Give the backbone structure.
Amino acid sequence: MRRRRLRIALLALPALLVSSVLMGAPSAGAESGQATASGQAQDGARLVRIELTGAAMLNKVNDAGFDIEHGLERVPNGIEGEAFATDEEVAQLKAMGVKILGDNEGFKWPEVADGGIPAAGASARSVQTLNHEDTVRVVRADWFTTKDQGFLYVEARTTEGAQADPVVGMQLENDSGKATDWGYARTMSRFVDSGEYMFHRNLFKLDARPHEIRVTSSTGGVTVGKVSDWLEDAPPPLTDRPGYKSNFIDGYKHPQQLYARAEEIADQYPDIAEIIYLPNRTNGYQRKAQAAIGGTGQSAVVLSSAAWGHQGGNDITVEFVERAGANLPLGVEVTGKAIRVLLATNADGAVSSTAAQVSTALETQSQGLVDRAHPYRTNAGSGIVAATPSPVKLTDSLDLKRVGAPEGEVPRGPKTIPVLRIGKHRDQSKPGVLIQAQDHAREWVPATASLEAAERLVRNYRTDQETKKIVNNTDVFFILSNNPDGANYSFYNFASQRKNMTNHCEDANDDPGRRDSWGVDLNRNYRVGSGFDGYDGASSSCTSGTYQGPAELSEPESKNIIWLVERFQNIKFMMSVHSNGGQLFWQPGAYIADGRITTPRPPLGDEAFYWQSAGRILSQVKAYRETVVTPENVGGSSDVLYSSAGNVREDLYHTYGIFAFGWEVGGSVYNPATGNWQGGSFQPVWEGDPNLVSGHSETMEYANGLMEMFRVAADWGKDKKDPKSDLVPGSGRFTRPVDVHFETNEPATIYYTTDGSRPTLESPRYEATEFREPGQVFHVTETTTFQWFSVDAAGNVEGNYDPDKNGKNFRKATITIR
């Protein structure tokens, strides 16, 4: 990321330690492809671990129809993940350059020093002289505990990290507490994405909390950083309060159950709840009836009904009839819903109709029963068709009553999506929070976690003061399933369904063998940083798991989100709830792979507010059963995961100024018995070991997090206190160049000038040194006056300064160099 050139004699200097502007005031202290009992894997498929070289290969494999979009982990050599594949598909993956990993292969955090740095034992503490020429800096060093085990996570960056020959290595050491010696040397792993150096990082288990770490590069750079606590000392969750009611959800819910309960809640609690019906109906749990006759070769014919299957398409039969006689013409007879194709013969009396000819006859002579008929996929249809032994029945193949699916018929046709709105004051006077669950059909836990949070709000409102504060001070909008058509398909037909059910495929991909691959990835269908703008992570292939659709906002489900935030402009927070992977992220969400050019990063103040909010939300997740979403899985989604072009978060933040989070619930749970982190799945068994992965436990812990997000919004709405900021060190006389930086008492964006002009909202913003890092440090070499003001996340301006007028009450400091 290129840094803006300053207009004075300043040299941008990396901050050496995490400053308060990133982490808040000092006083504030994906989904895997795992099989499930519901039968997610296709016949003959097995779970395989794979290694991809990077984002380009990930896109290539997705475009080929493999579903490996989630459950991914960024590793030094690229990306690792899981996929269900048959032996034939494994061979196809290998041919594409994908590495199939064995049981003991794959990335593991190193335990010993290597990478060109001699191994070191414990060494005495020494003082390091640090200056603006040092090439190494600590991005973050976080300590956390889970299941009575302690872990240290470190990110460090070197200005020479992009060097590939020789690769720059880093060694990490830590003490065992304040003023103890250095020891425990080990290598940090270098991470590269799309050919661009990201950072070095490491996660390892320790017996005692370190106070500081020391990082040394193989080129001689060295720096020291303090260790911070991550999610430690979290306040007890609301569920610990006497008389507090929770644990309302007893199993997975299909869309009909979710919507019915939302409407019941509105009826039962009319003083604090209501239903808003979104204006754009979905395209429906419906499909044209189809048949593929004659196999997959040049003689095969694929046909689709004009009517939806449930509206008569499923009643159509087609028969190819061979007749005795020479030189007979091709013809079509229709009796009711029965179609007979009378095949042509040649001079010898043999059938002479090709698949292409039969397709044309069916489209033009079936009396409107057949909408489309064509040769199989990319075939020319030059083969001679064969007579069918009996009539072939067309079918939409829906509502197959898959074993384990909830009882009940699935209603056909377009669906109106209800929004459950909860709040005492639903007049747009309170900050709105939008919870959007199940954009991706197969993700069942996001819906149950969202419904559990809604139940807690209404059922505790009259008896719990903290809940009353939330409901009285926020305006919460729940979309319990934003993809009801795809969700029903996941429940009743194909558990791994990701997209909606809209079929935009043309003849080459419009056959029954592709029916599980149709649809649009709703979280790739938005307008900012989209695939249509050249960003990576969305596909133009209609059968890809990340198909972006034929145009931005082509789908009713995405149009509805835009309608909602434009209609209710008090919506200031949004959580797009997904599963599973255990990440919490925000912008930037997409990048152009060539050069890794991301969408605009949030200002440092917004980034700090995201981090502060994440700490609060994830602390409440941990409070339930010690599930820790680790720091490596928090931040800009393009940094912690991969590029996802056209995602909803990007659109809502950049277009409407909404603090838009994305959440991959169901993260890894540490198992002290095995010493391993156990990953989740889209549809984990509902009841299971409460200390490991289960749908019930994930529902409860992530509902905790949603409740805390409501409290974040309520606090934001009540925040009327101006931020405070300082230039450190402040005004003074210095005999040599001096390093200065800004600090704030809360997350806030600083606007400053150094040319004597009055600071405004158009002035330069104080920026991060690099992504995931704190604010830059200025190396001042000549007398310079800084003039500035700060604005917090709630819009409060320091000192009540009005940047649009000619006020003089901005902050000012002069660094005098003599």
Notes: The longest strand covers residues 136-146.
